[in-house]
């Protein structure tokens, strides 16, 4: 399998192979070769459908039905490869040659690659396109960069301040407390504080403790399992209590949530029903959906347990077995390599649930969670000791 983007006779070409045949897409317009014009390029695939977009002009094409996973186990190369033997003969139209030009702002699966000496795994014969201390995107938020003897300076738009225009004027004198995030509110010429886990109040200056976590939206807890290295990942288990009045929401995501190669086990709500999704490998997500509607969204406490015994999945709701399925009788992948990471309620601020989960869940969780137990541990997870934001005490009242 492969996916390759190349420049062929002035046209951008995308080629990918999911295991049966090579699909080729090519732009209708040529790339200007004057060296002064930046072009915006988006390319990739969703399932078996490939897409290619150059400066807003889009084309798509589908591969054969049944082929929808890109199974590659190599490094990601930009601009060239160290050996031509790494290039599949069908990945390019002519003999493979290195790219000459400038590349910036590469985003892979919603994560930007840092094309620097310290961040890249390796490389050779690559220089700075700009050639000055300003470089690319030194000045944030549309700031203008000026080269100076001491390096550079940024001229900031009216709404931004700081050496690189990184701070909103509305947050420059903020009173947000310990580890809180200041979120500017330009329309009201003000700001709000989003509190770190364990803090509350308008300015996040009140220390709190809780055993029931209350998620109010735009909330998350990220728990790192200290016993991950000792787990038998072929036999996973998670149980918890939750209550909500919402019909949509991600309750828990066991997995790194970084890219589509990561294994995961997820529990949430979709259209008022309990939904469990598991991926043990090859990016094949198997959704299991409870058939009864509106059983979970009545503001009562519900107890859910998910047990993974290799490829056999059991889901219990209020101690009743509601789902039981062998997701792969061939037992090709049997371990849940979740990286020791569990997200509750959502993901980090700015990471949208529908994007990170590729549409498996639509929204963050709004409600309460308590009594979380992993595997056969004798103790419940102390959620208050994890990391997170915008989560408050649900111990009392609403």
Can you offer a commentary on this structure?
Pfam families: EGF, Laminin_G_1, Laminin_G_2. InterPro entries: ConA-like_dom_sf (IPR013320), EGF (IPR000742), Laminin_G (IPR001791), Neurexin-related_CASP (IPR050372). The mean pLDDT is 85. With 398 residues, the protein is an all-beta fold. It is built from 1 helix and 28 strands. The longest helix is centred in the C-terminal third of the chain and has 4 residues. The strands form 8 sheets. Strands 17, 18, 19, 20, 21, 22, 23, 24, 25, 26, 27 and 28 form a 12-stranded antiparallel sheet that branches. The protein has a 3-stranded antiparallel sheet with strand order 1-2-3, with no helix packed on it. It folds into 3 domains: 111 residues, Jelly Rolls; 29 residues, no CATH class; 181 residues, Jelly Rolls (Sandwich), CATH 2.60.120.
């Amino acid at each position: 399998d492969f996916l390759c983007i190349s420049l062929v006779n002035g046209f951008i070409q995308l080629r990918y192979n999911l295991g049966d045949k090579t699909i080729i897409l090519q732009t209708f317009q040529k790339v200007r070769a004057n060296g002064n014009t930046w072009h915006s390029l988006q390319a990739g695939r969703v399932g078996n459908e490939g897409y290619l977009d150059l400066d807003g002009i889009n084309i798509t094409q589908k591969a054969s039905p049944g082929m929808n996973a890109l199974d590659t186990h190599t490094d990601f190369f930009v601009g060239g490869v160290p050996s031509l033997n790494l290039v599949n003969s069908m990945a390019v139209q002519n003999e493979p040659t290195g790219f000459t030009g400038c590349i910036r702002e590469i985003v892979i699966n919603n994560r930007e690659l840092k094309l620097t000496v310290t961040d890249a795994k390796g490389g050779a014969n690559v220089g700075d396109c700009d050639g000055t201390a300003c470089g690319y995107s030194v000045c944030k938020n549309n700031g203008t960069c000026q080269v100076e003897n001491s390096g550079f300076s940024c001229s900031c738009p009216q709404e931004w301040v700081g050496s690189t225009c990184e701070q909103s004027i509305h947050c420059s004198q903020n009173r947000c407390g310990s580890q809180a995030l200041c979120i500017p509110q330009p329309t009201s010429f003000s700001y709000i504080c989003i509190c770190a886990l364990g803090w509350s109040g308008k300015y996040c200056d009140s220390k709190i403790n809780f055993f029931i976590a209350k998620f109010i939206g735009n909330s998350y807890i990220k728990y790192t399992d200290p016993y991950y290295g000792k787990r038998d990942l072929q036999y996973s288990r998670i149980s918890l209590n939750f209550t909500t009045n919402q019909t949509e929401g991600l309750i828990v995501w066991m997995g790194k949530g970084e890219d589509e190669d990561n294994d995961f086990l997820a529990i949430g709500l979709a259209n008022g029903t309990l939904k469990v999704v598991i991926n043990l490998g090859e990016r094949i997500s198997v959704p299991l959906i409870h058939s009864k509607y509106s059983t979970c969204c009545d503001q009562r406490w519900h107890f859910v347990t998910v047990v993974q015994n290799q490829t056999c999945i059991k889901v219990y709701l209020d101690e009743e077995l509601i789902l039981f399925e062998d997701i792969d009788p061939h037992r090709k992948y049997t371990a849940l390599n979740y990286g020791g990471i569990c997200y509750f309620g959502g993901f980090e601020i700015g990471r949208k649930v529908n994007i990170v989960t590729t549409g498996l869940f639509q929204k963050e969780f709004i409600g309460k969670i308590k009594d979380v137990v992993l595997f056969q541990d004798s103790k419940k997870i102390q959620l208050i000791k994890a990391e997170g934001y915008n989560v408050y005490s649900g111990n009392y009242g609403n």
